[in-house]
Design brief:
The structure is a single chain. This protein is mostly beta strands and 203 residues long. The protein is built from one helix and 14 strands, in the order αββββββββββββββ. Helices cover 14% and strands 51% of the residues. Strands 3, 4, 5, 6, 7, 8, 9, 10, 11, 12, 13 and 14 form a twelve-stranded mixed β-sheet that branches. Strands 1-2 form a two-stranded antiparallel ribbon. Strand 11 and strand 12 form a beta hairpin. The longest helix has 29 residues. The chain is globular, with a radius of gyration of 21 Å. The N and C termini lie far apart (73 Å).
C-alpha cells in the first residue's frame, strides 16, 4: 500500500512539472514580438544563430557587438521606388545605433511576398546596394565597403492556430570597410527576425 501511495505521489509530481513546461512553451510561442537572446558560446556578446523567429540580431564591429535589444523593433523592411530597405536598430557601446542596407530592384508588396528571398545572397560591393549607418558617429552616413555579403538562408511562414501571422527571415552578413583611415571588419553578423504588419512598410 505504501508503495502504491509513493508511486501516485511521484507520478503526480512529474505530471505537474510536464504540464508547467508545456504551458510555458506554448506561451512563449504565441508571443511573437519579444526578443529572445541566447548567447553564442563561441562568440561572446552575440546571439546564437537561429531560425526560429527569436527577433534578434548581432554582429561584431571589430571586437565589439552591435545587437538587438528589448526596447526597439530589431528590423524594419521598407519598400520605396523599387528599393528594399533593411534597417537594423539596436545597441552598440551602450548607445542606440542603426545599420541600413538598401537593395535596388526589389519591390515586394507585403511581408507575405518575401518567399523570393529564400537562399538569396547579395554581394554588398555591387552598385545596386547602399549601406548607411550611425555606428561610426552620431549621425547616419553612407559608407563605401571593400567587399561583403548579405545572405538570407531561410524564409519561413509562421502560423498560429492555422492562421498566417508573420514571415521569419534568418540569415548572415559581413563586410569590410575603411573608416577614418582604419581597416574595419563588420563580421559574424546573424539575424532571426519575424516580419509582419508592424515592421513592413510600403512608402
Amino acid at each position: 500500500m505504501k508503495t502504491i501511495k509513493l508511486l501516485i505521489i511521484i507520478l503526480t509530481f512529474f505530471s505537474f512539472i510536464l504540464l508547467n513546461n508545456f504551458c510555458t512553451k506554448d506561451e512563449s510561442e504565441v508571443n511573437l514580438d519579444t526578443t529572445i537572446f541566447i548567447e553564442d558560446q563561441y562568440n561572446a556578446g552575440l546571439p546564437k544563430y537561429s531560425e526560429k523567429g527569436y527577433n534578434s540580431f548581432g554582429v561584431y564591429i571589430g571586437r565589439e557587438p552591435f545587437v538587438s535589444n528589448q526596447k526597439d523593433i530589431p528590423l524594419t523592411i521598407s519598400v520605396k521606388d523599387e528599393n528594399m530597405i533593411f534597417r537594423f536598430k539596436g545597441t552598440y557601446q551602450n548607445n542606440p545605433k542603426v545599420l541600413e542596407f538598401t537593395f535596388n530592384g526589389f519591390s515586394p508588396k507585403s511581408y507575405v511576398d518575401l518567399d523570393f528571398l529564400n537562399g538569396k545572397e547579395f554581394n554588398l560591393a555591387k552598385p545596386n546596394v547602399t549601406i548607411k549607418t550611425s555606428l561610426f558617429g552620431s549621425d547616419e552616413q553612407t559608407i563605401t565597403i571593400r567587399n561583403g555579403t548579405f545572405i538570407i538562408n531561410k524564409v519561413q511562414k509562421l502560423y498560429v492556430d492555422k492562421e498566417y501571422q508573420k514571415t521569419i527571415l534568418s540569415g548572415e552578413f559581413q563586410f569590410q570597410l575603411i573608416i577614418e583611415n582604419e581597416p574595419t571588419a563588420i563580421h559574424k553578423g546573424r539575424f532571426d527576425i519575424c516580419v509582419g504588419y508592424e515592421n513592413f512598410f510600403l512608402l
